Amino acid sequence: MFKFSRISCALGLSIMMLSGMASATEAPAPVKVKVFIGAMFEIGKNTGDRAGEFQHWYERYWMKSAAKEVPGAMNPVFCNDDGVCGSVLGMGKVNSSASMQAIILNPQFDFSEAYYIMSGVAGTPPSQGTIADVKWATWLVDYDLGHRWAPEEGDPGKPVFMPRKGYEEYRVYQLNKDLVKWAVDLSKDVTLKDSDSAKAYRLKYPDTAARAAPSVGTGTFIAGDTFFHGPGLSKEAQYIAKLYGADDYVMTEMETTAIALVIKRTHGTDRILALRGAVNFDQGNPSETTLQHLDPAPGQTAGGFAETVENIELVGSKVVDHILKNWSEWQKGVPAAK
């Protein structure tokens, strides 16, 4: 009897020790992500040098945060104690969506109630915007996923693009109207930065929108891995936006339709915002060719890059901070717009 008791005690002690070891090695609880901010590139370091798309976000939210490595993502993820996380996802549809997929499925994070702000620089048609403008997307449209041919091989003056069947579910997204309205209402009165070089550069364009001071607005973002440029392809982008029933094309970029697809397949798209700042026009001025505009002479660049990347964060942080401050309401879903 005594021998049995000793064996029982030993077994009990072993079980307790194993249980303690298991508890000690259990993974920490995942970060409850309230807002995820995705940028596409950074120029150098995350702080202390020339700012790219991520630096101002990093300096506002993650200066004291440790990097979380994620297999499959191009760069680490940073999260603060308030549930704001962010990362540099990479440029182009493949890089950015692969990074987003790796992050959103990683067990370190709980994205079940997260809001997303995909942010970066972009080009704008001079008829729709100007350097240092900041726009919230109402629609996301893919520039690709169709058929194209050389202009001389089609009817003169007619479009050279035709959508390909089978891509209807992910070549165009209309973003949550209430969420976009919230974003605009919260950020429309932000005082945007500008530069003397950008002011001078705008005067090369005759368009009223191109010559205006920077402001906050909305419209369709067209995403293509090809850096389409020039008045002809700008016109084609507008044609595609209208073909799909979207608003006017106002920003050219390279990532967000692919990122939206990743998020949609996991958590839906009703909590996504896309935010872009214009650092160039999508075509040259009337006195230069498209190639001259793509490869400008020294001193002929648009200017305003530093001001634009700062504007993006100034505008976007208004929404981030509002969601955090009112999380008990936003946690349930996007409140009805006022």
Automatic annotation (TrEMBL):
InterPro entries: Nucleoside_phosphorylase_sf (IPR035994), Pur_nuclsid_perm (IPR009486). Residues 1-24 form the signal peptide. The keyword Nucleus does not apply. Keywords: Signal. Pfam families: NUP. The keyword Signal applies. This is Purine nucleoside permease. It comes from Hohaiivirga grylli.
